[in-house]
Amino acid sequence: MDDMLRRNRIVMRASHRLTLLTLCLVVMIAQIDTFIVNLGARAIGEHFDASVGELQWIVDSYNLVYAVSLLTGGMLADIHGRRRILLIGTLIFTAASLVCAAAPSAPVLILGRALTGAGGALMIPASLAIIRVVWNHPGERARALGLWAACNGVAMALGPSLGGLLLPWFGWRSIFLVVVPFGLLALILAGSAIPESSDPRPRPINAPAQLFGALALGSLTYAAISAHSSPHAMIAALVIAMLSAALFIAIERKRGAEALLSPDILAVPEFRGAMAATLGMTFGGYGMVFVLALAWQASGRLDAAASAAALLPMSLVFILVAPFSGALSERLGIRVATSGGVSLMGLGLLLIGAGGLQPNIAPAELGLAITGLGLGLGSGPLSAMAVGHVAAARAGMAAALINVARISGATIGVAVLGACYAAAGGGTQGLLLAMMTGSLVQFTGAAIAWIMTRPKAQPAHLTR
């Protein structure tokens, strides 16, 4: 009997490792594609003689469609099966990459990039929800999420390097083709290694909420995309986003338990804390990368290639720390791991603001390393806190919402910190104002997460 139990445990561990390998492969495919396409924009523009607007949409159509589709992706995963939606998303992503590689014109390439965004919006929430369902023990789940989160950092570091190798030798089409074999491998592994799961209860589609939720997220993303090229379009998009969000909330309030954003999810304080901290984390993190690289290049301090190299300490420290974030959160407690991680990022931004444009950029490099440490410490545990405290039946929607917080924070952060940098006239003052703003938002998100995760007081009769 003991031998049989031991064999079952060994088989289960092997199955879990293969499941995690598959999910890590899925998230790396999506993230590498994003980073590698940014690097290939110039070569693509020269090939098609594309306008600046077309180039912008080749890069941004992915983000726009991804944002619009996130809530739908999470809901479909819960209703129709997380493995099934993961497979469909990976298939769309892989096929769309082939469309991009074979694109005869810039508009077709934009369409292909939009389709990859739709595939990503199905893949990422489903993969996070699967981790919630497969790993029942909180400690094991936190370790799995730490490794899953680390793949984002690996993709961040690997994408530009891979693009730098492929572009000179094989041309811009190769940066899309390289994703295809990995996508096919993910499809094969997912079909055999990942168990199916879904919400057993029937749930309505709630089309009006889906529509206005998508419109709010899409308009917010478009506002950030157009912030630097068309201020009037940005203002119009922000107005649409606010109106759509108001209508979305009004519709949701009438739906009660059948709402897209179920009260079962929103009533969980840990989930609300994870949303606030995640928004703060990406607000400061993405905004910092955008402004710091811009400041270095605008001042003549570093060129584009040197700026990319100078940003590496953040990615490298993140890659080193993230796989151990689950074990660290068990030892330190999830409050310290999440709130402490985001607070470290805030401290890193202050150092970057103070030293980013000094003759010696060592303080900025230290700030980047501290930012990477905070990101690595907090990223996985924040995902664990978001999906681990809600019912497994709602895992897909919880995963979608934490990704909404992530992309919303990144979108708003780039726009707001970029505006702060410009408002202060750029240079040292502009960088300092932007970093102080980013760190303030991060400290606020960390404080909210700390408050939301405080231990609940036991009733007096239980403490006697």
Radius of gyration from CA coordinates: 22 Å
Classify the beta-strand content into a percent band.
under 5%
Helix content: over 70%
Overall pLDDT score? 83
- How many individual helices? 19
Number of strands: 0
Shape: globular
Alpha-carbon distance between the two ends: 42 Å
Low-confidence segments, ≥5 residues, pLDDT <50?
A: 458-464
* Overall SS class: mainly alpha
Sheet of most strands = none
What is the N-to-C order of secondary-structure elements (H for helix, E for strand)? HHHHHHHHHHHHHHHHHHH
Characterise this structure.
The chain has 464 residues and is mostly helical. It contains 19 helices and no strands. It is globular. Residues 458-464 have low confidence and may be disordered.
Please sum up the structure shown.
The chain has helices at 2-48, 52-80, 82-101, 106-134, 138-170, 174-177, 179-193, 207-226, 231-255, 263-266, 269-298, 304-310, 312-321, 325-332, 334-355, 362-388, 395-423, 427-452, 460-463.
